[in-house]
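Notes from the 1:1 (GR / supervisor)

We went over the backlog. Supervisor wanted to see one worked example end to end before approving the batch request, so GR pasted a single chain during the call. The sequence is below; no edits were made to it. Supervisor asked that the structure be written out right there so they could see what the output format looks like.
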Amino acid sequence: MASLHLKYTVIDSKYYLRGPMKISTITSAALIALTMTSAFASDKTDADFDKLLTANKIAPKDQQSYCYTDENGKLQGTNVDTKIRLASVSKLLTTLWAIDQKGPSYRYETKLFIKGSNLHIQGSFDPFMSNEKMLYLVSQLNTLGYKHFDKITYDKNIQIFPNAQVHTDPYPLITRDSNGKNLTTYFNTASWSKIFKTEYDRLASLAKKDRYLKSVDMSVDKVEFADKNPLLADVTAIPEDVKVLTLSSPQMYKYLKETNVQSNNYSAHTIFLDLGGEAKFAQYLADKFSLTTDKVKMYNGNGLPTNIAGVRKDNYATCAIMTELISSLKESIEKQGMEIEDAVAVPGSDAGTFANRLNSSDLKNSFVAKTGTLMHTSTLAGAMNTTKGFSFFGVFNMTTDIVGAKKVQNAMVASVMEEMGGPKTFGYQVEGFHSYDSNENVKNFNIFDADEDTGFSAIDESGLH
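Structure output shown during the call:
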């Protein structure tokens, strides 16, 4: 975060310089020295913001906030320390936490233990155990010669949600029973409805050749939960008659990218829960950024309201804090060999929530951002690549006029871009997304062969956890 906002107010005839966390007095002479070069750098954008709020009748003005970092890394803006609801911009903080804690190359690995006609599934809290991945699993097991299991058992770490890739509603209730019912459905192909068969065909048509069989034949007699793997007497050793296969997810950055582009509430909160949830995130912010819950608070990973004892709670932060954390996200992912655009939506190229806004050719591939919308909140935050350098920005409107708020945000992107000398494009190319590992150079889901890379392979004892 910038050490100075270079904004001031007057109290009892004294000038006070406002910083991100405190207010300190300065003399008039010192103020003049500070403001000679860049203190008023945001005068134009401040004026633009005020005019846009007035023109679109967005009020009250003290609940509207915008900010950005200038070419010197100093924070500019209006109401930069005002506490604001984040809505789905929260997903940027979930992204930061995941990149810091697991890394962009992390993969969720679901283990499959097979002994004779029995299968045990050891989950990994994979947030995209959806129709696509589960039907892919059935097809690939067919390819390996498996068509029937007497019993399938599963542990507490598998979380199956058929609509994981299209989810937008409040977080679903997923239980041991619902996991068992879904597994029973997926693994009994003779009972598939016409609609379900059509879904299989649709997903197969979207996949690379040979990912899905044209038709599948699978059945299971019994499906049940198991606290422990019933096929292993000793978890430190795998018997010779137990085959172990691994269903690997795409790399974490691809999951985060899909989550941000589509604003997927289910995957965002599942990742958040897997990382440790509300209390662990608060501790992470305190340890790394010295931020306390009076400044920033995440009740969940997606930005939807949370009900606690009948009281609505919303994720919140300030514009100033958001620029600091987005800057940290960029720094963290670059240290790990990737770019922020690998995990966050690029307007003009990625569709999703930016399909109908901020997609003009002059802005294409010049910034990353995340939108947020609740009934009384509209938010936008991200990072711009400009001729004067990267600028981290946010525009937060607490209003029920979502259409008007989006007009303000779109115009402020243009205003800040102009203030920063105009957009500078970065190299970016859209990648498709599948919930299974779809790397074009990886042969997925095959029995291990020393001459192949594979996303579905035999593992040794060290692979168990």
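Supervisor's comment: Residues 41-103+276-419 form a domain with the Beta-lactamase fold (CATH 3.40.710.10).
Batch request approved.
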